[in-house]
Design brief:
Elements (H helix, E strand, L loop, with lengths): L1 H26 L9 H23 L3 H27 L5 H34 L3 H20 L11 H12 L15 H16 L1 H13 L4 H11 L7 H27 L8 H13 L20 H16 L1 H19 L13 H24 L11 H13 L16 H13 L12 H15 L6 E2 L2 E2 L2 H28 L6 H12 L14 H16 L1 H9 L18
Antiparallel strand pairs: 1-2
């Protein structure tokens, strides 16, 4: 036991050393670090980690610990072999040139190693303390604080950043909102932008999903506790294949983002205003799929270089819709299409009596379709002689109107200047932002299914029915109660936020501007009437809290804190309350 304890302490010591090297390397920009002992230190650290993991592999008795050590050994061995190959291929060049080639490989490998160790650490936390809601909220808080400190490193910004602005940016990225108090394109360096996009990726897909994926990868199985944690986040009904579902989520997310980046790259390859096309494509693909709304172009999508690139607009729209639907809906619809195509060619195979599309999928798809088509028609008509005038072609007007209907569904990209929109258009945008995307997706808002259930319940009550019946199914009363609870919490949170911001902002601030900002923050949208950069310090913290509550879901947190496992096998006498 003492031996195992000593090894664990050594593991944590090495993790701290790796973290310090990463922070030192990326946080402080030394011009002559290629021929300094810095690169030699990275090599020595990599060799030390390989020796330590090898020792742990041959001395540990538990299979799970041996698997973790084996994966670390393979990673570090591949890293050092890559350095040797680079050395052999460039042996005729000066040592400074060789070190310059080796350094990025060592940096990338050690960062990946640290991420693996971080995932193991987080998994260890929710092994010790089991409460899915608390662990989920805690992981987002830790991620936001860590991101804030990383953004405060000297090499992350051009002219420095305050803690409040760093925390606001990190929270906005982790909550995939997109509200910014500093210009992402000009105030942050490539290092700062990389930190932001990593925060967006982790926040969008969920740090627990990543953790569960690596835990399953190491062990090949999962514990009951881990299954509950992952199930709660990815909205998986059963525990049986919950980690395979988490693996599918990761593969689906990365696959869509890679394909999206390739299409974005093909659309901007001839545009001269973009310096790094590859990084631009990766950044905007992740930002679009995660519904984040961050952009590294000055002015975002309104930039003169890409404002009329309608092909790029449609690519971003598709990524936003896929991310806003969620993996459950996409997988279920894919299964339906697959079965339908099989039935066309194989007449003997009949699945028509078996329900493939779930009621949840149908509700989400129908609601999303109605909102997208209705939003397009409304904005096309309302803004035809206003913000759409600068787009001369009908196709351009259709594209921008469609983009303006898709983006408020928690994406945050702006193809038009929303501050120039008509008031009735802004009110409609607020309505779209409030609804948001679908459950178990990268989108925010009250969710399409919540809005649909609340609307259907109104008609059911008006018709004198005590329950909702749809697609040959009866919707449970628990789902309806949960929908109205979410509606109430959202309106209360947004209302309190509006009042708080109006108190902290100067007199005369437009209530429409403040309301637009608070709805955008709660629904993790990121659209703004150019109000965010002018916020006072207290207002920034109000919007941070609003973004955080909107992302994690206050109801989920309350359920995690207040729910009890014991069941009551008795009922009090029933009494009706007058409601009119």
């Amino acid at each position: 036991m003492q031996k195992d304890s000593l090894l664990n302490y050594l593991y944590r010591f090495f993790d701290i050393i790796v973290l310090l090297f990463i922070v030192f390397d990326f946080g402080y920009d030394f011009k002559e670090n290629y021929n300094s002992p810095h690169v030699i230190g990275l090599l020595i650290l990599s060799l030390g980690l390989l020796a330590f993991n090898s020792f742990k592999f041959f001395t540990k008795r538990f299979e799970s610990n041996r698997k973790v050590a084996l994966v670390n050994m393979v990673l570090l061995t591949a890293l050092l072999l890559s350095c040797v190959v680079i050395l052999l291929l460039n042996c005729n060049f000066h040592s400074d040139y060789i070190l310059q080639k080796i350094k990025p490989v060592l940096e990338g490998g050690l960062i990946f190693y640290f991420l693996l160790r971080l995932m193991v650490f987080v998994r260890h936390i929710y092994d010790i303390y089991f409460n899915p809601a608390i662990v989920f909220v805690g992981s987002f808080m830790i991620l936001a604080l860590t991101g804030a400190f990383l953004l405060m490193l000297p090499s992350a910004t051009e002219n420095g950043i305050t803690f409040t602005n760093a925390l606001f940016t990190a929270t906005s990225a982790v909550c995939v909102t997109g509200l910014v108090v500093m210009d992402t394109s000009s105030d942050f360096t490539i290092v700062g932008q990389s930190i932001i996009i990593v925060l967006i990726q982790l926040g969008g897909i969920g740090i627990l999903t990543f953790t569960s994926f690596f835990a399953f990868f190491f062990r090949g199985s999962s514990s009951f506790k881990e299954g509950l944690n992952t199930r709660d986040f990815i909205a998986h009904d059963g525990l049986r294949d919950v980690f395979r579902a988490a693996l599918n989520v990761v593969i689906f997310t990365l696959g869509v983002e890679i394909v999206g980046a390739l299409f974005i790259y093909s659309s901007i390859i001839e545009i001269k205003g973009i310096e790094n096309e590859f990084f631009f494509s990766i950044f905007h693909s992740i930002s679009a799929f995660c519904n984040a709304g961050f952009s590294i172009m000055p002015g975002g999508i309104q930039n003169e270089s890409i404002r009329y690139d309608y092909y790029l607009h449609w690519i971003i729209m598709i990524l936003i819709v896929l991310g806003g639907l969620g993996h459950n809906i996409v997988f279920n619809f894919y299964q339906y299409l697959k079965t339908y195509i099989i039935e066309l060619f194989e007449k003997k195979i009949v699945h028509k009596k078996i329900r493939i599309l779930t009621v949840n999928t149908k509700i989400v798809l129908y609601t999303t379709f109605i909102l997208l088509i209705g939003g397009f028609l409304f904005l096309f008509i309302a803004e035809y002689n206003n913000t759409l005038l600068e787009h001369e072609s009908i196709f351009g007007k259709i594209t921008v109107a469609s983009f303006s209907a898709v983006s408020p569904r928690t994406a945050g990209f702006d193809a038009v200047d929303y501050s120039k929109m008509n008031v009735h258009s802004l009110l409609f945008i607020i309505f779209l932002m409030w609804i948001g995307g679908s459950p178990a997706s990268t989108a925010g808002g009250i969710k399409t299914s919540t809005f649909a259930l609340a609307t259907l319940n109104i008609f059911s009550v008006a018709r004198g029915k005590g329950r909702i019946q749809l697609f040959g199914r009866r919707i449970s009363s628990d789902s309806t109660s949960r929908a109205f609870a979410i509606l109430s919490i959202s309106l209360i949170t947004i209302g309190v936020s509006i009042m708080a911001v109006l108190i902290f902002e100067p007199k005369g601030t437009s209530i429409l501007t403040v309301a637009f900002e608070c709805f955008s923050a709660y629904s993790t949208v990121g659209l703004s009437l150019n109000f965010t950069p002018t916020l006072t310090e207290p207002s920034k913290y109000v919007l941070m809290a609003c973004m955080f509550i909107g992302r994690i879901g206050m109801l989920n947190l309350m359920v995690g804190l207040l729910r009890k496992l014991n069941h009551q096998f008795y009922e009090y006498p029933k009494e009706n309350i007058l409601i009119n």
